[in-house]
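Q: Trace token order:
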Amino acid sequence: KSLGNVIAPQKIIDKMGADVLRLWVASTDFSGEMTVSDEILQRAGDAYRRIRNTARYLLSNINDFNPNTDCIATVDLLPLDAWLLDHATTLHQAVLADYAAYDFHSLVARVHHFCSIELGAFYLDIVKDRIYTGQKNATMRRSAQTVMWRVAEALTRWIAPITSFTADELWAHLPALAEPRAPSVFLATHTDDLVAVLSDEQRAFWSKLINLRDGVNRHAETARNEKIIKANLSATVTLFVDDALAAFLKPVADELRFVLIVSELTIQPLANVPQNIPIDTLPTGETLAVSIAVSETPKCERCWHHQADVGSHVMHPTLCGRCIKNIDGAGEIRSWV
């Protein structure tokens, strides 16, 4: 300290906020040497913003959700929503164990990974189409909101001992319950509303589907870099798959384009793959090849998907049939995602 090679806590608080300082302390393994620098604090700030922005996104998408009247029963959740609930349950148990063991740096890493990967890079990326374009009270929309609400309730409690100011602010904006909640998150207990809902076989299904999606996304990134497409939704994708993968994808084939976030998707036998397209192997052993081209169909101005039926409806010439069904019809029905 006499040499001046320290960073004053008050300076960090004034510049980045107290919660960033608290997050840095919690994310550092106190059993070893604790180091700090502007770069390390910047990383802590980035991690804090990821967690905070994820919580804000969850709150914004349950703004019209009333947990007292709009909740979907766990057994009726769409499979993608059930996957998130199951994953959050596993994380919840790990978080409680980390707190019990004072293993704060592992806890922070788990929660940050959950916000960045399982939520940000997968679930929220897929489900936003359903939230934004579906009918307000549609089961497919309320299913997603039910799980997002339950995750928001749990996330607020997970981070409360560490990012205290942020958690208390989130607590004040969670949807009101029939039985008034505690006035502060610090007067509440951890939620008991998370339950494991998937079998090991179902978890393996989603793990394989995520691996498939990651592989297609790598090809899509290459296509964007090569200026073949501007965005995933401007793409038409053809998957050439072996027999095992074809059988695996059959149940979800009609909604697979929503998982991959592309406008058009076709699945063909691997034997049909052109010679210039490389063949990939999934971690589970199945083989596939991915062909990506720009869609030549018009773009729906509401959902941004490129669909052949845009322009064929007199009353809504700029919308696709799916959006028209959600606006004027009985509404879209999803079975998986």
Remarks:
- Residues 281 and 314 are 46 Å apart (CA to CA).
- The chain has two domains: 9-187, 207-296.
